[in-house]
Each structure stands twice: as structure tokens, then as C-alpha cells.
Amino acid sequence: MSAAPQPAPRIREAPLTYRLGRRLTEYARLMRLDRPVGTWLLLWPALWALWIAGAGRPHPQVLGIFVLGVVVMRAAGCVINDFADRNIDPFVQRTRDRPLAARRVSPREALVLSVLLLLAALYLVTRLDPLTVKLACIGALFTASYPLFKRFFPLPQLWLGLSFGGWSVLMAFSAQTGALPRVAWVLYIAAVMWAAVYDTIYAMVDREDDLKIGVKSSAILFADMDRLLIGAMQLIMVFALVLAGRDMQFGRWYFAGTAAAALLFLWQQWLIRRREPGGCLRAFLNNQYVGIVVFAGILLQYVYSP
Q1: Of 51, 108, 158, 294, which residue is the least packed, with the fewest Cβ within 10 Å?
Q2: In what helix (H) or strand (E) does residue 172 lie, and over which residues does it extend?
Q3: How far apart are CA 70 and CA 164, in angstroms?
Q4: What is the pLDDT of residues 129-171, one digit of tens each?
Q5: What is the DSSP letter of 9?
Q6: Are 243 and 216 in contact (CB under 8 A)?
Q7: CATH number for 275
Q8: 49 belongs to a structural domain
Q9: What's the gap between Cα 264 and its chain centre?
Q10: How far apart (Å, rounded) are the C-alpha atoms in residues 86 and 78?
């Protein structure tokens, strides 16, 4: 007689807590919570504006709302961007392992997550005054449109600056003062130019892949004049910071911070001199220190020269 068939080995399912943890980890990666540099780059201009608009003493509630709002909106922007690029990212070396590109998160999950994040941002902004709410709605439309602009607009990095990178400056002045004075617009220009600078440098990392798949970027448009035009935008940003300082009658502490930012820009030019992806990435990451030194100058100006 033949032996009785043995039952197939039972595959033990991973515990629910483990599977839930893995899912939450993928969502966190989709929101770039594991890469906070982008959040800091968006937060610094808001902090510059809050301190200046609040004369060195921003309202604690407004400060808290802006910090949380930047974190939430940056996360929402990343999810929306990855959803729009879910069929492009697999062909780019730097982005092919993103959760949507690697199919570890479904498009439906990404849409639900983006809606939840936008609702959280909406709740936060409704704690502020009507003018700031209106500005936030306009900024949200700009942010949502950014991924589409990469398909046809040759300067999507500039659009990023106009919308995501600098819009918080205008909102900060509105929330603190209820108005948009001249210095708010000058600081907005500085933030726009800065976002265009660091995102163009970031685009230099992906230039070869972007050329193959047809994605637009300022790094592609600028071609071999990229360093020169990045330098021009860096100069405009520094000049705008100087104008803002003169408008506020700031002194040596503020201008020391601005001078430090200019020196960091020179270092970035050195890093991108050969246009190597590694050097360009280092230059991009160096921009977080630009935000720090400008903020330090503003902070020290109010501490030592009230």
C-alpha cells in the first residue's frame, strides 16, 4: 500500500502588527518622512517670514500651525508628485525604489493618503485668518499643478519656487500682520529664487534619465550654461535678502547671515563644477545650511538689536 499523502506545510502568516508596521513604513517613505531635508528647505523661508513679520516674537499658535502645515503639505506634495510620476519613476535610477514606482503601494492608497493629508492641512489653515485661508487655497492649487508642469513647462523648478517654495512667506506675513507689506514680496522673491536654485541643482542629478524619458527641467533647458544661470539666481536671492534687510533697517547680525549664505553658494558652485551626480547631490543638500544661516542672522538681529 502506498503511504497516505501528507498535508501541505502551512505557511505561517506574519503577525498583524508586523504587517501594519510594514505598511506604515511604506506610507512614511511615500511622504518622504525618512528624508526631512526637503521639509527643512520649505520650512526655513516660513520661519524667516514669521520672525520678521512678528518682529522677533511670532505668535506661538501661528508658529505651531505653520510648522505642522509645512510638514503636512510637503508630505502631500510628495504623494501627489509620486502618483503623477508612478509610470516614470521606475525608469529613473534615483526614484525607481519609491513605494509607488516599486508597486509596494497602490495608486488608490496614494490617493486616499493625499486626500487625508490635504484635509489635515485644511483643518490647520482654518485656524488662521480669512486672508491666509485664501492664500493657502491658491498655494494648494499651485502645489497640485506642479507635477503636471514637468510634462510641458521648460522651467518647472521656477514654478516650484513660485508655488511651493515661497508661498509660505506670503502666508506667514498675512497670518502675523493681516497684510502683505513690501518686505513680504521681497522675501518671497528670495525664497522663489532659492527654491529654483536648489531644485535645478537637484535636477542636474537626474538630467541624463530625464532626457531619455522626456521630462522637462531647468537643468536640461540651461544645458552647459547651468552653472552660470544657477549663479545668477543665487545672486538675485542674495540681493533680495539684502533689500529685505535694508527695508527692515537690520544691522550686522542679519547681514552676517546673508554673507554666510553667499559663501555657501560659492561652495555649491565648486561642488557642481564637474556636473557629477554625487557632487550635485551634495550641493543640493548643502542648501539646508543656507536656510540655517539666514535664519540665524534674523534671530540674532532681534536678540542683540531689538
Answers
A1: 108
A2: helix 167-177
A3: 10
A4: 999 999 988 888 877 777 777 777 788 888 888 877 789 999 9
A5: P
A6: no
A7: 1.10.357.140
A8: yes
A9: 19
A10: 12
Tell me how far apart the alpha carbons of residues 180 and 111 are, in angstroms, rounded to a whole number: 34
- Whole-model pTM over 0.70: yes
Half-sphere exposure of 68 (CA within 13 A, CB side): 16
Q: What is the pLDDT of residue 140?
A: 80
Closest C-alpha among 196, 186, 187 to residue 164: 196
Taking CA 231 as the corner, what is the angle to CA 225 and CA 232, rounded to the nearest 5 degrees?
A: 90
Would you say residue 174 lies in a domain? yes
What's the gap between Cα 57 and its chain centre? Answer: 25
20 within domain boundaries: no
What was the pLDDT predicted at 14? 60
Give one word for 219, left, alpha or beta, with left for phi > 0 and alpha for psi -120 to 50: alpha
Set of cell numbers at residue 292: 540655517
Domain span at residue 150 reads: 31-304
Domain-embedded: residue 206: yes
Q: Which three cell numbers stand for residue 10?
A: 502551512
Number of domains into which the chain is organized: 1
- For 85, how many CA atoms within 13 A lie in the half-sphere containing its CB? 31
Quote the radius of gyration of the chain (alpha carbons, Å).
22
Residue given cell 546673508 in the structure block: 258
Contact predicate 243/186, CB 8 Å: yes
How far is residue 222 CA from its own chain's centroid?
22
DSSP 203-244: HHHTHHHHHHHT---HHHHHGGGHHHHHHHHHHHHHHHHHHH
Highest mean pLDDT among 87-91, 136-140, 257-261: 257-261
pLDDT of residue 84: 82
Amino acid at 105: V
